[in-house]
Every structure is written in structure tokens, then in C-alpha cells.
User: Fold these one by one.
Assistant:
Number 1:
Amino acid sequence: MIRVLIADDHHVVRRGLLFFLKTQKDINVVGEATNGREAVELTASLRPDIVLMDLVMPEMDGIQATKKIKEQYPNTEVLMLTSFSDRDHVIPAIEAGAAGYQLKDIEPDDLVESIRKLMRGENTLHPIATSQLMKVREPQIDPPHKLYPLTPREQDVLSELTKGKSNKEIASSLFVTEKTVKTHISNIFSKLHVQDRTQAALYAVKHGLTDPSGL
């Protein structure tokens, strides 16, 4: 079962999410938070696998709550579910540690698939959020090997990862084993000082380490 915590200050939104998610045999909604502070506190006591996090909430917003959750409970993934699609919200949310970013107009079935993707360690970004990442790409002054200590194979894996591919798909594309892909991804996270695949994708696009057209 995928343990999910819903964090949103609007009762109607929480009720709607709870109603639909309860119909999924592999998802268990373990709690509801009405603000960011409650989200952090309930994460501590309930230890959900996924937190569905609103951005704008009283007492503590979703970005602050996400940062605290990822600092204290790195194994809990945060999926931003919001109405805001501008870069001033998308980029800080991902930098805070959100592994996914979706808008509230998402189809219910797509939301469920996004939750399952996070559990599989895959990226889940709304196309609009992806377009915001593409806009932050910075000019590349020096060749990647002078700025970043990634091996050529790690750069290949990073490029495939940025396209949202799973470990299995990356392994198939590069003709290596999934175990090898996992090792490369672990090395990439360590070298780039990022926590997850979404942050690695953002880093790659910002610093010109991969082609943003593949996102």
C-alpha cells in the first residue's frame, strides 16, 4: 500500500482527493493536514510515503513544509498539487525537494499514476512545470567536464533521466543492467549534491548538461 498524506487548506479539495483516492486498492490515505505546519507534524507521526502538498496555506506554506519534510524525512516524497504554474512557484518547490509538480486540474487517473510514479522513483512533472524548467537554462561557458565531475556514461544516464525515463527504460536505452543504472544515479546525486531525480533534472537543464527539448 502507498501511504498518502493530503495537505491542503481547502476542505472541498481534501474531500475530493480523499473520495477518489479511497477507491484505489493500492493507496491508503493516512491523514489530512490543513496547513504546512500540520503537514510536517503529521509526516513525523504517520510517516507517509507521499505527501500531496498544496503551495499556498496558512501558518507555513507548501515550500517551507516541503523543505522541512525532506530535511527530516528524506524517504517521504512530496508531490506538489497546486493552481500555480509560474516559475516563481515551480522552481522553489523543486529546489525545496518536491519530487513532482502537478496542477489541480489534473485528471484523477493521471494523479494516481503520478503517485505511483513517485513510488517507482520516476519524475512526474506537469508539462507547464517542465516548460518553466526549460526557461531557466543558463548559457554554458565551459565544457561540462570542466565544470562537473560526471563521467560520460553518467552524463548519458542523466540525459535519459531528465526525459522522465524509469531505471528499466534507461537500462534498455543504454544497454546496461538496472543495477548499473541505479549505481550511476546514486553517483550523479552525490556529485551534483541533489536529493532526487527531479532536482537532478532541474540541475541538468539549468547548467546545460542535457538538451531541454528532450523534457
Note: Residues 178-192 form the longest helix (15 residues).
Number 2:
Amino acid sequence: MGLATFKGGIHPPDKKTLAANSPITEAKPPKIVVLPLSQHAGAPCKPVVTIGQEVKKGEMIGEPGGFVSAPVHASVSGKVVAISEFPNAMGRMVNSIVIENDLKEEWTALKDAPDYMNLPVEELKEKIKAAGIVGLGGAAFPTAVKLSPPKEKPIDVVIINGAECEPYLTADYRLMIEKPKEIVEGLKILMKVLGVTKGFVGIENNKPDAVAKMSEAAKGEAGITVMALEVKYPQGAEKMLIKAIAGREVPARGLPMDVGAVVQNVGTALAIYEAARYGKPLIERVVTVTGEGIKEPKNLMARVGAKISDLIDECGGLKDDVAKVVAGGPMMGFALSSLDVPVTKGTSGILVLPEEGVVHAEDYGPCIRCGRCIDICAMGLMPSMLSILSEKGLYEEAKAYNLFDCFECGSCAFVCPSKRPIVQLVRLAKSMVKP
């Protein structure tokens, strides 16, 4: 019997050996942090501090701006020196709070709750919401919202995403190796909050030591199963993971809750445990700094708001032939125009690529109708038509080809012999029409 997987997908070189054996190390406290008030899906936060105010580490500085939102907390202690718009990794200007670190590392009051599993469900949900936890796999959707499905959408399975199918990135892998018990505790909290008895951890089979560590941590835990998955990109996408593990198809334009599932990243599970146990807000995360263009690839526990340049300096700096620095991985990441942008809750990696092998935007050609992108599309779409229609400005026509079912995994662009920027053209079309 083969390993669990889905139809379609590709097999890009995983390049994980660059950083896989680098244990998680604490990054140096940054001198300045820039904390965007919109680093999650949904409404931006509203500032609750003023310029000149002294704040402590873990103190809330931005309150949620709506139901789909998440608070933002100070990742250092110090003085608020600016509240203004600053660019994020995608080049957008975002209202942000700048704090000058006093290097005292003074925490706001945290409350240990060793009996967290005995707390009422509503209290656990409030702890998760107050901690500002979002999906750490990249989507950054507020976790408290995922844990509040409508009554007509009952949940019966929770899946922890340990696939980490994006090439180069090893942050989740290191967490599973170093903190497996805490991740399992996070899963147990999720299962309690959602009232389910079935929990899964899905891990690609190229991480056998992570499968072993997580299996040992889950041993004896009722209803929890660790599953090895086929190594195939985009195995870690929510809909693919649900198909591989639960055998359920999320409908077009649908959500995991439509088939009774909730999916959370391993980093999110750890953050949930730390919030429930210690009341710790989400002010830091593991970031893989890797690629052939960085001198010392590492997995760093980095503060939210630290500059990308700070993390690169901590890894020995850039090599001489660097062509691109990407926030995220090579398939779904964004090329950075500046290294002064901040780490956010959704920053899973910093990828530094040398000139050799990098495809530049002007190098692409016309679609030759080969059909490769259609064959490998995990969503069963026609990426070639989406890109052609977008290129011609026929954005409304692209909707007829299920434009919004594309989750921009990049598989189509990877196999395209004409090196067409299919994902960028899809994003353009999405930005020009209403869902």
C-alpha cells in the first residue's frame, strides 16, 4: 500500500540539507523592532500605545480591528518611537509601531497554568485569541476564528501540518525534532476546544526522524495518529493534506470546515500550547535562513519585528553572487526589494539565491500549449488559460476558469518550459476582479 497523498503535484529538489541539521538557536535581541498592525488575514489592528510610551515584552500594542483579526504584542521592552506606515515583505505600506529596545527584556505579567487541560473551553479559546496566534505556515489566518466554526459546520477531525513541503525550509522539521511533546500538547488543546476525538499529524516521509519523534510523543495519547505522507509538493496545502489524511475533498471555493476538518501548522500548535500553559503571546517564531547565497544557514528563533537584515547578519551575511532574497520558500515566497522589512508572524523563511539558476521576469516566452501545468495542478485547474487571459487583460473571463480556486502554489510555473510567471499573472487577475 502506498503512502497517503493527492492527485497531481510535482517533485522539486528539496534542498533541505542546507539547514536541516542546524538546531534552533535564539537570535540576538534586535535594537529596533517594526511591528506591522496588519500581519494576519483580516482587519488590521488599532494602536493602543502612543509615541514615547514605555512598553514591556509581551504587552499588547495593537487591538483587533474586527472579528477576523489578531492582536499584536511588543516583542521587546523599550520605548515606542514611531507609529507610521512602513513597507512589508510584499512592498505594501502598512501602519506599524516601532519600538526601541532597552535591552532589559522585561516581560509583562505572565500566568502559569499547569492545569491548562482542565480549563473550560471558552477560557482556552480566549487565551489563544489574546495571544494573537495566527497560522504560522504562511497564511496567517487568525487561529481563534478557525476555532469558532458556525454550528452548521461541525468539526470531527484536527490535522497538524508537519509536511513542510516547500523546498529549503526546515523550521517545522526542527520544531518536530526539538519540541515534539509541546506540539502534541497543542494538538490536544485544539481537540478539546473543537470537541473532537480524532487528531492527526501529517509528515512527509523524507523526515523519518521527525515521524519517529512525533510518534514517540503521541504514544499513549487517545485518538492521535502520526501519518507518513508521500513526498510531493504541495503536500502541505490544506486541501491536499485533508485529501491525503482524511480522504475528503474540499469543494470548489470551499473551506476545510465544509468537510469537518481544521488544519493547523506545527508552529501554531506550539504557540497554542505556550499560550494555554504560560499565557505567552506570539512575539517570536522559528525562521529558516538558508539558500546557496547565505554563508551560514540556520534556524533562528527570531522576534517578530526584527529586520530581515538582522537575521542575515546573524548567519554570516550574504555571499558575493546573490541574485535574490526571498521571504518564504522558492515556490510561494516573495522576492524582497529591501532587507530592512520586518519579520512577521507569517515569515517562515528567508531564502538567499545566487545568480546561477535564477529566472528573471523578462526571460519568459509565450505559452506553447504543452499542457504540463494542467497535468500537475493539484486543484485540477487550467493554469495556462488563467495566465493567458490575465496577460490579455481578460480578468472577468478568467473567473470562468475557477480563478479563485488557485492557491498560488507555483507548481505550474515550475514545470512551464516557457518560464512563464503564471502565479504572478493569476495574482494580477485576482486583484482586478471580485471573488
Note: The mean pLDDT is 94.
Number 3:
Amino acid sequence: MKNANWVEEPDGYLNRTPIWQFILVTILFALWAIAASLNDILITQFKAVFNLSDFSTAFVQSAFYGGYFVIAIPASMFIKKNSYKLGIIAGLAAFSLGCFLFFPASRLVTYQIFLFAIFIEAVGLSFLETSADPYSSILGPRKSATVRLNISQTMNAVGDIIGILLGKYLIFTDGNLKEEMSRMSKSAAVEFGKEQLGRTLEPYKYVLIVLVIMIILFAVTKFPTGKPKVKEGEKQATFGEAMGYLIHNHRYWHGVGAQFLYMGVQTGVWSFTMRLALDMFPSFNERFVANFMLYSYICFFIGRFVASYLLSKLPETWVLLAYSLLGTLMIVYTTFVPNITAIYAAAGVSALMGPCWPTIFARTLETVEDKRFTETSSAFIVMAIVGGAVLPAFQGLLSDATNMQLSFILPAIEFALVGLYFFSELKHDTHPMANKSNS
């Protein structure tokens, strides 16, 4: 397809990056990050209002990332049949519905209704990620696909920061919620809890407005298909054919496994950093400990920005292996040091998580040489997000059985295994320096 701004190559990539379209797609990365970081706020809020165990609070992430897992394959089939653009619009619509459901949930004051709203929200986000992750890498020349995806993923950190600020100032108050409720009679505590749950609506009002604007912008903007051209007489690949191709691609499944483990690291650390601070220092309040998440997301942004520079100079596997090993050591420090520096280490490790998701995604997708299977293979990588649903729940169980600080040993082990994946990828790195080292 020819256009004044781009030419689509036979493999679906473009001869140049259309700036406006790339900006719109990149904004999506900030939007789903806002939703994810608000979950960290909700976990802390729900813990006090509903008097939940750490295992029960992890259900917030289970509902969120479980929605990704359930919908990723149907989303990929929808995109394959239609287009990336329609997949994005469908995702924005479902995301909007999930945000809207927070309004009746806050009135019903039932944890399960909130979980359902979060699940519906995640259904929309699954459409967005299944569309936007591969689409960002395709919106330009093939040789710069990883760089493009890392640029888009940098907006995750921006969205995380926006989300935590919305939660800090619109949901949390200056008091310690659990301590305040403990001093009240049962009936007064129930009413106060309802009032605090009502505060969770505030950030979602603004998110809904942005989502409506984005739906309109995507509807009126022309986008490239981003799909490889089907040769004359050749049919589009079916799901069965894609599975037949992928089942023998061991590197691909190693990448999916690494993404599963990485999501356990990111979600586990971010879900429980505020809980760790409140557990170690009961005098802290929710609004104050939100600062640690703000530091986390700033570190995440810096780490991804630095990694983008390093990835342009050094082999991906060298950079990510170093990040993974240093990250493992920092989480081990968080687990065993009994003072406030442990919390700063939990925040600082985010700098070393920054480049993991986009680099694993892009490397794993590159193992799929037949681009007819891009949508299906992308969906399985997105489904690996379910690691954020499963592994933090185990961390919550470990916390309930021991204590919150010791539970951080689980993401430390997971990060070490991610490092092992990048070690196994050293021999596959195409960077000239890596080749020289391996020869």
C-alpha cells in the first residue's frame, strides 16, 4: 500500500516511520501503564477497607493479568481477521467499560465486583497490547524494530508515574487508613470504608475522558495494515498452521517462559513495595509510602532510557544479562536487610527491570521467521503476562506464612531465571561485538 508518508514492504514493515501514527500507538503504552500502576494503589486501599490477607490482595493482579491471558488469543484472531487499528479501537472500548464499572462497584462495596471491573478493564488492555506491541515494532524499517518498541515502552514509565500520582492525591489521604478504621466502631468503620472506596472513582473519571478522545483519534486517522502481503495463490495462515509452526520453535517458547517469569518479578515487586513499607514501618501512611512507588517508576523510566542507549552500542544479551543479575542482587538485599534501605532497594530495582519486557518481546518475536504467524505468536507472548497473575499470588501466600519482607525472595529467584534466559541467548545475538566474543 502506497501513501504520501510510507510504503509497506512485503513483510509488513514500512520504509519509514509515520510519526503521527507512531505517537498515537505509543500513547497506548502509557494508558495501560496507568491502569497497572493504579492496581498497586488499589491493593493497598482494598487491604485496609476489606481487611484482606496478602494472598487475597494479590487477586487484584490475578483478575488484571488473568484478563490478559484469557483474551490474548481471541484478540489475535480478531486482529488477524480485521486489522491492528480495529483491534486497538475494540481494546479502548472495553477498557472504557471496565473503568465505568468502577462506579457501580464503589456503591455496592463488594470486593468481587471490583475484581470483575478490573477483569473487564484487562480484557480491553489485552486487545491493546496484542495490537500495539507488534504494531509499534512494525511501524517503520525492520532493522530498527527493537529500538522502536523500546521507545514506545518508555511511555510505560510515564504512565506508571501518572497513575501513582493520581492514586496518591485522588485516592489516598494523609491518615493511615488501617489505623483510623481500627479506632472506629464497626458501623462507623463500614461507612468510612465506603467513603474511601468512593475515592477510587476519581482517577478513572479522567482516564475515561482520555479514552474517549483516543477512540475518536484512532477512528479518524489512517493507519498502515502492518501485515505481510499474501502471495498470489497463498492463503492466510490458520491458527492450526501457526501452532504447527510454533510448537517446534524452542527458542520462541523459552522467550515466552522468560516473559512469564519477568512479569512475576515486576508485578510482585510493584504490588508489594507499599505493603512492605507499611509492614516494616507501621507509623507510615498510605500517601507517604506511595512515594516509594513514585521513585520506582522514575527509576524504571531512567533504567529504560539508559538501556535504550546501551542497546544501541552493545549486544542486547550482554545488557540484559547484566541488568538481570544486578536486579537479582538488589531484591536479595530487599529480602534480608532489616532497615529502610531495603525499601529503597525495592524501588531502585525498577531501574533494572526497564528494558526486560520489550527486549524479550522483540527477541522472541524475531524467532518467528514466517511473518504470517505474527498475530498468533504475539498473542502467546502477551499471554505470558499471566505470570503477573500467578506468581504474586504465591508471593502473597509466602508473606502470609512468614512475613512480607521474606516473600521478596520469590521475585529474586524469578529475576535470576530471567538472567539465565539471556545467558542462553548469548550465542544467538547478531550484534557484531557479540559475534566477535562468541567466535
Note: The chain has one domain: 19-223+240-438.
Number 4:
Amino acid sequence: MSGTLVLVRHGQSEWNLKNLFTGWKNPGLTEQGLKEAEEGGEALHAYGIRFDIAFTSVLVRAERTCDIILDKVGQPDLETIHDEALNERDYGDLAGLNKDDAREKWGEEQVHIWRRSYDVSPPGGESLKDTGARVWPYYMMEILPRVLAGQKVLVAAHGNSLRSLVMVLDRLTRDEVTGLNLATGVPMVYRLNADSTVASKEVLGDMSKAH
């Protein structure tokens, strides 16, 4: 029997709250973000899962979320691998800008295309397709083999790095993934078949809070 893959988007960051493009910038979690991470960890504790290994990005908002979740499930010392392959999408020249200011500068339609299209990247940054191009190989080489070997694996990462993974796992089209939003701090529990396809998926929280 294959193992279990749990994906969690980090809790609300300080720049989420300020409506800023974040990307590879490194703000911490807000009080609400800390609470969301705690609630995600509590949901996983109630679910009864024990992890064999955890993966996260090298950005503090995901690392802190990972730490909080592992503390809540009673595994604070679990081996955790940090890799920039799981980092948020790089927003390039948009990073640090208020989203409303960006709309004034470049126009509503252009900013919407940069945010929501599959393969159009902002100036100096990555598209969702570009993000997937680094996330997918890392998943295939480092994460998936552990799940197929029967391990229970936690991945705490970001909205776009996880969207690119969910796109593959849930077999979403380009159009479907552009409309996908992941709620902060809400665990998605996947059980995989031996051929790496999804046997089941459970969401341990309220995805309607996604933004």
C-alpha cells in the first residue's frame, strides 16, 4: 500500500495582509497566520496521522508553518528537508508592490493575466508553468518515491508551488488550475495508488476561505 501525501499552504503572511506581491521575499506570519498553522496542525492531530518526513521551502512563512504543524502533531524533531524548489512563484518586478498599485501602473487586465494565466510571466518573474517546471521534478525525484514506499509525507509550501502540484495530482487543465485557490493553513490529505495516481483526497478544513 502506498503512503500518504499531505500538502499545506502556509498561514497568512504579513504581506498577504498588506495585499503585497510576495514571491521570494521573506515576510513572517501574522497572528492570524500563526493561528491558521496551529489549526492545520490540530486538524492533522485529530486525523491521527504520524509523519515519516517533512518538506518545506526555504522561506520563513512556510518553514514556520511546518514547525507549528509538526509541534501540534507531537513530532517537533521530525526530519525536515528545506529546498528552494518548493519556494513560492517568483513575482519578479512585482514583488513588494501593492496589488492595487500594480493595477494602476500596468492596468487591471495585464495584472490579472500575470496573476492568473498559466504561462505568462510578470517582468523578471515566473509564470505558474515556470514554477511547475522546478516543482514537478523535485516532487518526482525526492517526494513521490517516499510516498510510494509507504511513507507519510508532509509538504508545507506556498499557494503557487502547491497549485502546480495539485494540478498534476487532481489532473486539472490549464483553464481549471488558473481558477484554483488554496486556503492558508488547510491540509489536503492525498493517498496515492502504486502507479502514483490519486486513490483518495480529503480536505481537513474550509477551502472556501481561499484567496
Note: Strands lie at 4-9, 53-56, 80-82, 152-157, 188-192, 198-203.
